[in-house]
Amino acid sequence: MNDKNLENKIKEEMERQVDETGSVSPVSLLIALKYLDAMKVEEWKEGKIPNLERGITLGREKVLRLLSVMSQHAKKMGYKRKVESYVGKDGKALNFSVTANPVIEEHYSTLYFDKFWGKR
User: Fold this and answer.
1) Angle between the N-to-C axes of helices 60-77 and 3-21, in degrees from 0 to 180, rounded to the nearest 10
2) In principle, which of 16, 67, 100, 108 could form an S-S bond with 96, CB 3.0–4.6 Å?
3) Three-state DSSP string of 19-68
4) pTM, whole model, 2 decimals?
């Protein structure tokens, strides 16, 4: 899939999720686009895999692009953002990325939402 097609799919799915639930996260987006299986998310939360990127089938550069497109599109759409804490079943913070880079971790853990959802 070329970058333009991926970008369009990201934007369409973001808008669909926000329309339906009021919010979208990178994890929910990756699952919806079939780049991440929900079972891998559970394995990650249980500590069976060290980081979520191990379960993502999209190449790392494309994942970073996805995170960037999400951030840009959320800004364009006027979505608010909230950085969430992801904690495993053992109570320890979970890593999304192989590198545990704080900037990348923040992008993965950002929830985008429409503050007016449900009030229209």
Assistant:
1) 50
2) 108
3) HHHCEECHHHHHHHCCCECHHHHHHHHCCCCCCHHHHECCCHHHHHHHHH
4) 0.92
Separation between Cα atoms, residue 71 and residue 29, nearest integer Å: 13
Contacts of 5 (CB under 8 A, 6+ apart): none
Strand order in the sheet with 23-24: 23-24, 110-113, 80-83
pLDDT for 84: 94
Q: How many CB atoms lie within 10 A of CB 70?
A: 24
Q: pLDDT tens digit string along 61-120?
A: 999 999 999 999 999 999 999 999 999 888 999 999 999 999 999 999 999 999 887 665
Domain boundaries, the chain: 3-113
